[in-house]
Design goal:
alpha/beta; FAD/NAD(P)-binding domain; D-Amino Acid Oxidase, Chain A, domain 2; 3 domains; eight-stranded mixed β-sheet; five-stranded parallel β-sheet; 26% strand; globular; binds flavin-adenine dinucleotide
Length: 453
Amino acid sequence: MSIQKKNRAIVLGGSMAGLFAARVLADSYAEVIVIDRDALTGVTEPRRGVPQGRQVHGLQARGQQIIEDLFPGITKQIVADGGAIGDMAGNIRWYLNGKRVAQAHSGLTSLTVTRPFLETQVRDRVLELSQVSFLEQHDIVGLQATEDRGRITGVRVSPHSEADGTETTLHADLVVDASGRGSRTPVWLEELGYPRVEEERRKIGLGYTSRLYEIRDDPYEKDEISIGVVSSPATPRGAIAAKQEGGRVIVTAYGILGDHPPADPEGFDAFIQSLQVPDIHQAIQGLEPVGDPVPYRFPANQRRRYEHLTRFPDGLLVTGDGVCSFNPAYAQGMTVAALAALTIRRHVESDAPLDPLRYLKDLAAEAVDGPWELMVGGDLAFPGVEGERPPMTRLTLAYMKLVQEAAVHDEEVAIAFMRVFGLVDAPHALLEPGLVLRVLKASGAAASAGIEL
Ligand SMILES: Cc1cc2nc3c(=O)[nH]c(=O)nc-3n(C[C@H](O)[C@H](O)[C@H](O)COP(=O)(O)OP(=O)(O)OC[C@H]3O[C@@H](n4cnc5c(N)ncnc54)[C@H](O)[C@@H]3O)c2cc1C
């Protein structure tokens, strides 16, 4: 690790990706400024800049491991402040293809809290870092570059307090864009004479609707923290009922390709009742609604292929949803932002000059490729989703179906599946020979092929 501190880093956006980035930058930079258009300090409610904050936000097991590494003790604090904790395979009642998955202890921690609560916990930890300060209620309006445009030297911001749109420039040795899916970096780079970054979009036409409840009659079995009915090709509708801090429950329903859960209470209930299994509908009979259902639309998965660029200015990195924004039903975004922070850390800690093109390639390989393949592959299981399905894809989909069937009967397969889904293991872990045998046996595929295992 470099002992000599670099000077100033600026992070664009103070949401999860920005907070994770600020945390790792603080180890290498003397000063880190996080800029956001929203008020952040002391804000514990959903906020305008993060409209998805009213929907369920599950943190994958790998994400939990990383935040505990970045902020030691945070898991304990979240639980002390009322968050629900459990084992991802042991304390969640999962249904895949309408069948209940074997529940078993996996050692994978699942924290279930609202998105604003999690963000507040992480932000409070970042605020404790003496190197970090927040510039709130400021719009980020552009980047400042050297005359030859080879290096980004700062950011132009416009404070909300200045009604006339007065701009100020803040200088920085490094700018990290964590401003989310709507990031303007592609446009700003083009204005500076760089090629437009290729943008891959996979249409999914997803609709989410969430409603908060208080518990009247506890619907959970012993130590359960959540019930998840995952959508399947046969019933492309799903829902989750997850305990949250303060003894509440969030019920989120979702449907793809325009089959969206209604936001009126009766329609919402009817949608939940139409799921493949009755558990969540039964659960809400014992819950008292707090407010109305809140909808959210997510038209397409979006990936900006920064790793394909051959020219990129020095002094600039990108992270979070601005690079890749995933179908939220897979609950990957925050964990990918956490993985990206590890890549940022490795690059800024190095004594070698920071190489953004190298970073962008490493980011793709270390944080984005795996979850993207998992998610794009998973979406292609739904017949109406556009996309090519060459033989290898069809084979993978068929095998994943067997894995899901086997997970109903075999605890070890269930755990292996959750480790991949939780982004702890890479997907090829499911191809380990011993596991393949279990999958073929427990799914019944071996028996139907007349093979005795
Ligand atoms: C419906 C839905 C459900 C989701 N569920 C999950 C889940 O279960 N699990 C999971 O891990 N992930 C989930 N995600 C993804 C998750 O929300 C994001 O991956 C995560 O918030 C990281 O995003 P980010 O920090 O890159 O950007 P964002 O969270 O979008 O934040 C961007 C920040 O930048 C600020 N900003 C943007 N532009 C400007 C500007 N010009 N000037 C000043 N400030 C600006 C905004 O105010 C905001 O604070 C979900 C997403 C959606 C849409």
